[in-house]
Amino acid sequence: MNHFHVYLVEDEKNLAEVIKAYMEKEGWKVKHFSDGKEAAEHIDSSPHLWVLDIMLPGMDGYQLLKAIKSRNDTPVIFISARDKDLDRVLGLELGSDDYLAKPFLPEELVIRAKKLLERIYKNDVQAPEQFTLNGYTIDPNGRTVKDGNEPIELTTKEMDLVILLTSNISKSLSREEIIEYVWGSDYYGSERAVDDVVRRVRKKLPRIHVETLYGYGYRVLSS
């Protein structure tokens, strides 16, 4: 996939125009917001990536990041003129995936965004064709799951987990394998994050039998 949708939230008009131009050269569709509160109204549109400034009118970047992560797991890159360790750490703790201090070269932001998008959406290229499992229609390439004709809303990580488990029916997958696939090799958080995503997937897709392999990981059974 290279037709990514990026939401850019930056109140410096000139900088926003430069970033937008560089990203559009990659074939990405970029929607620009100059106000945090206005951007928050579009969270449910679920772009592939958010790029947020911290200092914004209406709603600051921290508040917007919290709102995004409370609704879905879309990746976020923070950009800020405040190159302080506290800002960087707070952003990462709240769930941002990267942090870039101003001034920066637009090319560097694009490179970081590209690597992040390729890692998170890598399954779009590698995934199998659409298939059905226990009444659910799973389309890994389109990243959708339907119950009949009704689409089921899944976060990025929930969808990645569904793709991994249902593409490996009856195969035992360790927590380490799941983390590598869903979060990437640079993830250093708790393995309990796997259990949390599994819990949410079970709730949203109750007919998919995700079996717990105690002390090891998980697997999906065919029925």
TrEMBL record:
Q: Which residues carry this modification: 4-aspartylphosphate?
A: 53
**Portion annotated as DNA-binding:** 128-222
**Which GO CC terms are listed, alphabetically?**
cytosol; protein-DNA complex
- Read off the Pfam families from this record: Response_reg, Trans_reg_C
Recorded GO molecular functions are: phosphorelay response regulator activity; transcription cis-regulatory region binding
OmpR/PhoB-type domain ranges (all copies): 128-222
Q: Which UniProt keywords apply?
A: DNA-binding, Phosphoprotein, Transcription, Transcription regulation, Two-component regulatory system
Report the source organism. Answer: Evansella cellulosilytica (strain ATCC 21833 / DSM 2522 / FERM P-1141 / JCM 9156 / N-4)
Which residue range or ranges hold the Response regulatory domain? Answer: 5-117
**GO biological process terms on file:** regulation of DNA-templated transcription
- What name is this protein filed under? Two component transcriptional regulator, winged helix family
Give the domain of life.
Bacteria
- Places the protein is found: Cytoplasm
The record ties this protein, via Gene3D superfamilies, to:
3.40.50.2300, 6.10.250.690, Winged helix-like DNA-binding domain superfamily/Winged helix DNA-binding domain
TM helices/strands, residue ranges: none
Where mainly found? cytoplasm
